[in-house]
């Protein structure tokens, strides 16, 4: 069995495992049934790809989406791995090639759509191919209760019984019911080795803003990230078209996407997004399942999502490659009203509605958080953490005030007017504005009239919004959105509990846009040049840009500026195969024009032997005409030097045996070589 760490370096070019990966790889390598639950972007694929390469025979990978399978196969091939897919999207030649690779015993990974499992030929094929491991991607597709149920996934359990090989299942869906269903359906109810990786995605920056001219807010956010791939989520289909239009008018490549579009048009957008670098898609939540793009640099919500789970999943589509990604979620009282109404007017039974309201509350609590957002988010998922330093509240802590008095005044205004009015009218009462409506209803005679003059109308607006956010008051669906008090407010009203709120969080929109780049200003031009090179190579090979190199790899190149292939080999994501095909191209971007390296020497790039090779070559050159420069010209071929550098003989006789030098060359180079070989 090959050493997984060595393959991790050589094939994938990664310096180490991501958190959680190593244990999973071990378990799969040891042939144990394994269930791994990892957040999107956690690096699930590696957990079956690496064991597949270490083990003999073929690993079959069941995955639900053809386009994604094809991309994974492309990415693996680009890294020099023998992988193939059998899908309905194959050309005959492609299928033929896969069969050939199986017959030659070359194939390591065979991707397969679940539909294939319906055919009895499949298990025969897999047996013939010496399939020794089944990997199931998106394993939650076996769950009949989930959104992504795929009936053919139910056949996987049968396949496992037929082949009698271990099975490794992967998913990002962590809830108990789904997990239990996976165990029943894929593992016949015998608990597999289970790994649950935490929820944190530290590279994703979290931010919320109170809605205030949302279109401008989104345009400003996009302008600061020009040229980066992003998604804008909207709550309504019509808004996606309008916003995409506005983005195009501002000079961004952008298109819209929603569930009401023709299937063909939707696929077109999906594949453009997958392939094009820097496209923005403005979409409803229908956009998601079909995308598997690791280099989405930002996600913005122009409307509040429906729950904290939905929020987490949607922002989680960004930054899967581990490079920095940014998010912005807009929200306001109207969003809260809309989401509450959606739940109340839905057809779900009462307990389900109750649960949906609490999930929405989770998100509103996050929106109105007073401290680190990530802490608040992770706490919701049951994890504790330190303040993160990568969210808007860590960047600029908000001004807080004890709002107990203000909230009690507001509650009192609500109760004294029979829970029949919206925030606007209630604020008029509190600040003592004698409008027509106030006088008509005699509200200027209430004891609460004018008791809130210490706060401005805008500040009261913020208090009411936060009261909705903390679920102290809710819009009454029966009374056109009049606010009613909830039980959560009683302790505050009775003086048993205090509450802290933020000062108004509507920040004056600054007109200047601070451009956010992924690297320092000095390195930005180099990064663009590297991206241009990547685009050209990707287009020539008709693969998505990230198949050539991930963003993070280019960022590292721009920052570290490797000047030799050895340095280049140290960059994350540069494995042996990619070094060979792309190394010089990217070096020449970094260094102007790079020295071509001898192909024999290139094989040692990034290894210690490469260093030794260089020193041996130096010695050889300096002794070309002997110590005193008068001897007979003598040199050694790179192949010989490579052999010496790799075997590292330590005596003259070893040296002679390893390199077959003969007495004359031993005399000329022997001692000097041993000096190199035995030093350091
Ligand atoms: P998911 O868990 O969502 O399926 P992927 O397997 O697509 O995630 O991995 C996400 C990204 O992380 C990919 O770009 C992959 O190349 C990268 N990645 C995975 N493992 C590592 C690692 N050990 N070091 C660096 N990058 C990694
Ligand atoms: Zn934080």
Question: Outline of this structure?
Answer:
The protein is an alpha/beta fold. Helix content is 47%, strand content 11%.
What does this structure look like?
47% of the residues lie in helices and 11% in strands. By secondary structure, it is an alpha/beta fold. The strands form 4 sheets. It has a 7-stranded parallel β-sheet with strand order 3-4-2-5-6-1-7, sandwiched between helices. Strands 8, 9, 10, 11, 12, 13 and 14 form a 7-stranded parallel β-sheet that branches. Strands 15-18 form a two-stranded antiparallel ribbon. Helix 11 links the parallel strand 11 and strand 12. Helix 18 (423-431) packs across helix 20 and helix 28 (608-622) crosses helix 29 (638-647). It is elongated and about 115 Å long. The model has no long low-confidence stretch (mean pLDDT 90). The protein binds adenosine-5'-diphosphate (ADP) and zinc ion. Zinc ion is lined by residues 372-374, 387-388, 390-391, 393-394.
CATH topology of the largest domain: Rossmann fold
Globular, elongated, flat, extended or rod-shaped: what is the shape? elongated
Number of helices: 31
CATH arch. level architecture of the largest domain: 3-Layer(aba) Sandwich
Give the end-to-end Cα distance, rounded to a whole number of Å: 31 Å
Main structural class? alpha/beta
> What's the CATH C level of the largest domain?
Alpha Beta
Query: Which hetero ligands occur in this complex?
Result: adenosine-5'-diphosphate, zinc ion
How many separate domains?
Answer: 5
Strand content: 5-15%
Q: Main beta sheet, described?
A: 7 strands, parallel
For the biggest β-sheet, the strand order reads 3-4-2-5-6-1-7
Helix content estimate: 40-55%
Number of strands: 18
CATH superfamily of the largest domain: P-loop containing nucleotide triphosphate hydrolases
- Quick check: average pLDDT? 90
What is the radius of gyration? 31 Å
Low-confidence stretches: none
């Amino acid at each position: 069995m090959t050493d997984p760490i060595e393959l991790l370096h050589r094939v994938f070019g990664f310096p180490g495992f991501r958190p959680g990966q190593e244990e999973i790889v071990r378990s799969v390598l040891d042939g144990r049934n394994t269930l791994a639950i990892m957040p999107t972007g956690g690096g699930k694929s590696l957990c079956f790809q690496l064991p597949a390469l270490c083990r003999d025979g073929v690993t079959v990978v069941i995955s639900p989406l053809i386009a994604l399978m094809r991309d994974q196969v492309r990415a693996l091939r680009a890294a020099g791995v023998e992988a193939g897919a059998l899908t309905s999207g194959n050309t005959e030649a492609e299928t033929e090639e896969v069969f050939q690779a199986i017959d030659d015993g070359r194939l390591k990974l065979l991707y397969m759509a679940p539909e294939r499992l319906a055919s009895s030929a499949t298990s025969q094929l897999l047996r013939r191919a010496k399939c020794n491991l089944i990997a199931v991607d998106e394993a939650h597709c076996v769950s009949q209760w989930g959104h992504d149920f795929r009936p053919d996934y139910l056949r996987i359990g049968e396949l496992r019984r037929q082949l009698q090989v271990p099975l490794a299942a992967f998913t990002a869906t962590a809830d108990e019911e789904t997990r239990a269903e996976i165990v029943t359906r894929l593992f016949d109810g015998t608990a597999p080795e289970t790994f649950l990786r935490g929820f944190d995605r530290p590279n994703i920056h979290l931010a919320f803003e109170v809605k205030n001219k949302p279109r401008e807010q989104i345009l400003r956010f996009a302008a600061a990230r020009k040229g980066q791939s992003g998604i804008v989520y909207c709550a309504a289909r019509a808004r996606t078209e309008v916003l995409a239009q506005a983005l195009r008018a501002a000079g961004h490549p952008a298109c819209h996407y929603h569930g009401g579009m023709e299937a063909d048009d939707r696929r077109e957008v999906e594949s453009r997004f997958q392939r094009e670098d820097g496209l923005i898609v403005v979409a409803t939540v229908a956009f998601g399942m079909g995308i598997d793009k690791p280099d989405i640099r930002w996600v913005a919500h122009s409307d509040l999502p429906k729950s904290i789970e939905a929020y987490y999943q949607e922002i989680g589509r960004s930054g899967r490659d581990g490079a920095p990604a940014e998010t912005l979620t807009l929200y306001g009282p109207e969003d809260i009203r809309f989401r509450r109404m959606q739940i109340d007017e839905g057809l779900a039974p009462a307990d389900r509605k109750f649960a949906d309201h609490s999930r929405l509350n989770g998100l509103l609590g996050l929106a109105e958080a007073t401290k680190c957002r990530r802490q608040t988010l992770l706490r919701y998922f049951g994890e504790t953490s330190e303040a993160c330093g990568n969210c808007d509240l860590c960047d600029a802590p908000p001004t807080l005030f004890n709002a107990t008095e203000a909230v009690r005044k507001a509650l009192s205004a609500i109760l004294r007017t029979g829970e029949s009015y919206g925030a606007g009218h209630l604020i008029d009462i509190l600040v003592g504005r004698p409008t027509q409506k106030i006088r008509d209803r005699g509200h200027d005679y209430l004891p609460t009239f004018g008791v809130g003059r210490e706060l401005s109308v805008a500040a009261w607006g913020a208090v009411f919004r936060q009261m909705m956010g903390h679920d102290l008051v809710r819009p009454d669906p029966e009374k056109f959105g009049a606010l009613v008090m909830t039980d959560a407010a009683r302790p505050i009203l009775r003086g048993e509990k205090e509450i802290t709120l933020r000062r108004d969080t509507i920040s004056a929109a600054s007109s200047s846009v601070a451009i956010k780049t992924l690297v320092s200003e000095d390195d930005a031009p180099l990064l663009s040049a590297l991206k241009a090179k990547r685009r050209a190579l990707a287009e020539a090979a008709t693969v998505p840009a990230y198949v050539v190199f991930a963003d993070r790899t280019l960022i590292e190149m721009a920052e570290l500026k490797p000047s030799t292939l050895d340095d280049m080999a140290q960059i994350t994501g540069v494995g042996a195969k990619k070094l060979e095909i792309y190394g010089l191209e990217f070096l020449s971007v970094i260094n102007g024009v790079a020295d071509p390296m001898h192909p024999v020497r290139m094989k040692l790039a990034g290894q210690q032997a490469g260093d030794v090779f260089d020193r041996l070559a130096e010695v050889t050159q300096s002794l070309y005409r002997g110590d005193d420069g008068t001897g007979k010209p003598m040199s050694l071929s790179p192949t010989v030097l490579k052999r010496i550098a790799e075997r590292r003989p330590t005596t003259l006789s070893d040296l002679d045996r390893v390199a077959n030098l003969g007495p004359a060359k031993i005399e000329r180079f022997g001692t000097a070589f041993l000096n190199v070989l035995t030093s350091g």
